[in-house]
UniProtKB/TrEMBL annotation:
Top-level lineage group: Bacteria
CDD domains cross-referenced by the UniProt entry: WHTH_GntR
PANTHER family registered for this protein in UniProt: GNTR-FAMILY TRANSCRIPTIONAL REGULATOR, HTH-TYPE TRANSCRIPTIONAL REPRESSOR YTRA
Annotated HTH gntR-type domain residues: 19-87
Protein name: Regulatory protein, gntR family
Keyword Transcription regulation in record: yes
One Pfam family, short name: GntR
Keyword Calcium: no
Gene Ontology molecular functions: DNA binding; DNA-binding transcription factor activity
UniProt keywords, alphabetically: DNA-binding, Transcription, Transcription regulation
Length: 340
């Protein structure tokens, strides 16, 4: 019964002179959804079945189905066919956003990205937490269900074939670079040289203290390029530098500069500074990576080096909306405040 009603809706558009066959099929399915002939979860007829029922070319039918998938109205299930994903026929695009985690700076990216996209685009947000199994499962689950994919990848060789499954015109890599083919679009951070430049700019200030302590976790989401830059800097500038895997609660001491990438670690350092009566920028130095509004305010300001995550979000949304290829590298910039 549903098939008969669907075919009736499609054929009712045959006399609309402005519609191509592809547009006729797309609009016919939309009309069937608006009239509740089709509802969420319903299977669409196979391409071969539609060829027999309405006589359109297989390429025309497949093109119409794929357009409705890109808009998030249909979804494609491997070896099962096409299904109704939503009854909201007003949305123009369905976007998958896969990030590391919802830290404050990534929230800045997300809000900027979401606001720039506008209201008629469905945005689904996922996190992989730098866990490759989660990353792989998420990629396999979202494949074929979205019109555009914006992915912050795990920088491992195993990630490349996973991400390479997506059509290049529907894929944007953000945050960390991944060595795909030359055609892929990306908006990513540059860590090595810009981190080194930040340290050099702070060299005179760092040398006023006895030790430069960097908290860095091996085999984590933290960029190895920042570690390389730190090692290069303390050697080039003869700085007493130390790398520790994590901050130990209560271990704060005067006359040291503490540098951390993790916000939770930063909050622990600041809390211990307050408890021991040590003033950042005077009794000790504090440096953080990835800026946000809180770091501008707390303790009279925390010195950071960072990219503009709001700008990255806007640029990513522009790619989704316009589909113009982009290959852009954002350099971290030093933001000097009172903590160092």
């Amino acid at each position: 019964m549903k098939l008969y009603q669907l075919i009736t809706e499609i054929k009712a558009l045959e006399d609309v002179s402005t519609f191509s066959k592809h547009e006729q099929l797309v609009q016919g399915i939309i009309n069937a959804l608006d009239q509740k002939i089709l509802v969420r979860g319903d299977a669409l007829p196979s391409v071969n079945r539609m060829i027999r029922e309405i006589g359109f070319a297989g390429e025309t039918i497949a093109k119409a189905y794929k357009e409705l998938v890109s808009r998030g109205i249909l979804e494609s299930k491997h070896r099962k066919g096409y299904f109704v994903a939503t009854e909201d026929t007003e949305q123009h695009l369905r976007v998958c956003l896969l990030l590391y985690a919802f830290d404050t700076f990534q929230e800045t990216f997300y809000q900027s990205f979401r606001n720039k996209l506008g209201e008629n685009i469905q945005l689904d947000l996922f996190f992989h937490h730098n866990n490759f199994s989660v990353f792989e499962n998420t990629i396999n689950n979202v494949k074929g269900k979205y019109g555009m994919y914006v992915i912050a990848p795990i920088d491992l060789p195993e990630s490349i074939p996973l991400v390479a499954q997506f059509p290049m015109n529907k894929l944007l890599i953000v945050d960390r670079q991944l060595n795909l083919n030359e055609e892929h679009s990306y908006i990513v951070q540059e860590f090595k040289q810009s981190s080194y430049n930040a340290f050099v700019e702070l060299a005179d200030r760092i040398k006023e203290f006895d030790e430069f302590v960097f908290f860095f976790k091996q085999k984590s989401a933290e960029p190895n390029d920042i570690m390389d830059s730190f090692q290069r800097f303390i050697k080039d500038y003869n700085v007493n530098g130390t790398v520790k895997s994590k901050y130990e609660l209560g271990s704060i001491a005067p006359n040291k500069v503490y540098f951390t990438i993790h916000n939770l670690e930063l909050w622990e350092i600041l809390k211990d500074s307050k408890i021991k009566g040590l003033k950042p920028g005077k009794d000790l130095g504090i440096l953080s990576h990835n800026d946000d509004n809180i770091k501008e305010i707390i303790f009279d300001g925390i010195t950071t080096f960072s990219i503009d995550f709001a700008q990255m979000g806007e640029m990513a949304a522009e790619f989704v909306l316009c589909r113009k290829p982009i290959q852009h590298i954002m350099k971290n910039q030093l933001i000097r405040r009172n903590s160092l």
